[in-house]
Write a structure and sequence with these properties.
Layout lengths: L1 E6 L2 H12 L4 E5 L2 E5 L6 E6 L10 E5 L14 E6 L3 H7 L5 E5 L7 E6 L3 E6 L3 E2 L5 E2 L2 E6 L6 H14 L6 E3 L1
Parallel strand pairs: 1-4, 1-5, 2-4, 5-6, 6-7, 12-13
Antiparallel strand pairs: 2-3, 8-9, 9-12, 10-11
């Protein structure tokens, strides 16, 4: 099971992540409740928290929401952080931790950016080499993302990061 920890803005990220995760099954833990989406044995745990919780994991993905304003803490080496470029609180929380961080935004310096946004699809650009949770090397590439309702930019890029980090390296398209 892959742990996804959302710190801060849970609403927009949750609404974009659930359609991506639901086919494999997901447990959503937040707001004092635990709910299961999808069928079978869940592949994902989506944990929502205002701040960075104490983590004792071999690996996982830490997603910072736009309203994150907490402080950082030591993170296990297998945790990869995803944050929006303009989120200074997240950048400060990660500073000095040695955690692999994926910056998402519209700049050529970002790890993930959207090269094209349309009504029902987007093309997301992975702009540097990254290792996924399977240990595979992901080379820079374009990824086609289909959706029914166009999400906001950061939730789209964060969901794309989750997919890239958890799916086989050869994948070049997916749907939200």
């Amino acid at each position: 099971m892959t742990a996804l920890i959302v710190c801060g803005d849970r609403g927009a990220l949750r609404e974009t992540l659930l359609p991506l995760l639901e086919p494999g099954g997901v447990w959503l833990c937040g707001g004092g409740a635990l709910r299961q989406y999808g069928g079978g044995q869940p592949e994902f745990l989506l944990y929502e928290s205002r701040g960075v919780p104490a983590l004792a994991l071999d690996q996982g993905i830490l997603l910072f929401g736009s309203d994150f304003c907490g402080k950082g803490r030591e993170l296990p080496s297998g945790v990869i952080a995803v944050f929006e470029t303009g989120n200074h609180a997240a950048a400060q929380a990660l500073q000095g931790t040695g955690t692999l961080a994926i910056a998402c935004g519209a700049s050529p310096q970002d790890t993930l950016s959207a090269s094209s946004l349309e009504d029902h699809r987007a093309f997301v650009s992975l702009q540097r080499t990254v290792k996924n949770l399977r240990g595979e090397i992901l080379e820079p590439r374009e990824i086609a993302v289909r959706y029914r309702r166009r999400p906001e930019l950061y939730p789209l890029l964060a969901a794309s990061a989750v997919r890239l980090l958890t799916a086989p390296a050869r994948e070049t398209a997916f749907a939200l």
